[in-house]
Amino acid sequence: MTTVSRLTEVTKVHGSGASAVPALRGVSLEVAAGELVAVMGPSGSGKSTLLNLAGGLERATEGTVEVEGVAIGGLPAKKLAALRRRKVGYVFQDLNLIPSLTAAENVMLPRELDGVRTRKARQEAERALGEVGLAGAGNRFPDELSGGERQRVAIARALTGERRLLLADEPTGALDTPTGDDVLQLLRERCDAGAAVLLVTHEPRYAAWADRVVFLRDGAIADTAEPMASSR
Amino acid sequence: MLVTRLTVRIPRMHTQYMSIRHGLLALLSQGARYGYQLRTEFEASTGATWPLNIGQVYTTLSRMERDGLVAPGEQDDQGRVVYAITEQGRSELARWFSTPIAQADRPRDELVIKLAMAVIAPDVDAAAMIQAQRSATMRTLQQLTKAKRGAGVAQRLVYDSMIFQAEAEQRWLDHCESVLAAHSERPE
To answer: Over pLDDT 90: what percentage of chain B?
Structure first.
């Protein structure tokens, strides 16, 4: 399996001197293509920091962060932004979609920003929407979609083009449990199709969809749960 | 199958004997059935979470016959007997469906007792026990979730019930951890 995201002995300290607050302390983690890894922990345990570091939204104080084999720590800002756009998709609890764009346009946006021609981006978007069970919904606006459908669009967008790393921060936050299950089922399917997903959640029922569940405590990995090898 | 391993911790559900009895009555309310049919259909609707052996089915049927809830028909030429629900059986089933099940019917939970004992024991690391339990319960949750994929709707809801129970245990463990951490920072 190809490692898509790799964190090695990563430490993140917010602030400096006397007011320095360590958010992560020597965390190592790998997510391979086809793998769904969940991160659980109480608020303040470093979950979101971990996700932001993995996607290059924040820089590590110490240690290395790689995306598809590229160490992103030393990249200049412009290159880092381009790598983020091409290789990493994000799904948040809310505020995922731009309300004035249709579902297809939302999915196309990062590709067009990357210089892909509209026609090709449109084709990719239609295919990506089909893969998340929303074929034919491309012309609808976000407020014409249900909460679960909006998350499907966000997942489609997170995986268009050559993106294989999907970072999801509480993607089920505002959803009822059957719809939350649907979102996890979809993330699972996208993993089975080759994506690598790093999921932050505080809900055990959603974490249980993962191949591995990492428990963070005070910025360090306290334990990891994975099903017995025979059942995988 | 995977699921048989799950019976280790989770299915500490409400008085199991009673639920088998009423489960069989519910199936019989849809028409008369042979014992082996009841077993197959019971398992099909609850998933492999409650493997029933055929002996349990016949024992339950004969007790229900004694109590007037079911009536056996004639033996066929292969010696098989069809069972039908009686009027009394129907009203018992209706009572069951319309009566909530009391939480207090559950047996004592070994984990709760173990944790309480760990907290008062001088040489046991309760936090380590909580973390080990949390990982074990998460593994169970992962297996239940895996089994749930592709299940029919009745089975899925049975798995969901176990998932919610395991999740409640996870939340309770998190809660214990926070309470114990706060307590050790400012002991009474």
So the answer is: 31
